Structure formats: structure tokens, C-alpha cells
Amino acid sequence: MMSKEQFEKISKTLDNIDSKLTTLIVLQKRASPKPKIGNEEAKILKLCDKKHTIDDIVKETGKTEDNVKVTLSNLRSKGLIRSVELKDKLVYEEI
Question: Which CATH number does 36-95 carry?
């Protein structure tokens, strides 16, 4: 079993890694040409502001949950968004 100190040390290390990866993604994005996105992707991308959950995006766009999930997946694979957990909610952030 892991002690509380070990857990906190591992947690801090993972947070540090996450921070560094985010920095690398931003730097890569600056150096790379902007990926092409369609109109539907652009609408959903605007809602990736660390405030909207999937349910919120479905309500705002009128799209099905499956359609929104696919679009979010496409945006993530293009390196444009990431998932962030805030206040026990999964929201999306443009990067």
C-alpha cells in the first residue's frame, strides 16, 4: 500500500509532466500550420472554453451526443483541444 506522502509525490510529478506536455503542445502548435477544420468543427471549437461539457455542447449545437463526441475526437486528434476535469465535470479547452 502507498503512503500519503508517496501518493502526493507521484501526484505532483504527474502534474509537472502534464504541465510540460501542455507547453510542448503549444510550442508544436505555433510551429505547425493550422489544421483545416469544417464549419461544424469550428462551431464546436468555439465552445471549448473550459466551461462547456458534452451535454452543454449538444444543447448549444442541436447535434446528437454521438456527433459531438466524434467532432471532439477529431479536434483532439488535430491537437486543437484537450479534456479538463474541473469541479467534477469534464469540460474542453482549446489549446
Answer: 1.10.10.10
- Amino acid identity, residue 51? K
- Spell out the domain ranges in the chain: 1-32, 36-95
Q: Averaged in consecutive runs of 10 residues, what is the pLDDT profile of the chain (95 residues)?
A: 91 92 81 83 94 94 95 91 89 90
How much helix, strand and coil, in percent to the nearest 5, is found in the chain? 60, 15, 25
- Please give the DSSP secondary-structure letter assigned to residue 50: T
Gap between the terminal Cα atoms of the chain: 37
- Residue 39: count other Cβ atoms within 10 Å of its Cβ: 7
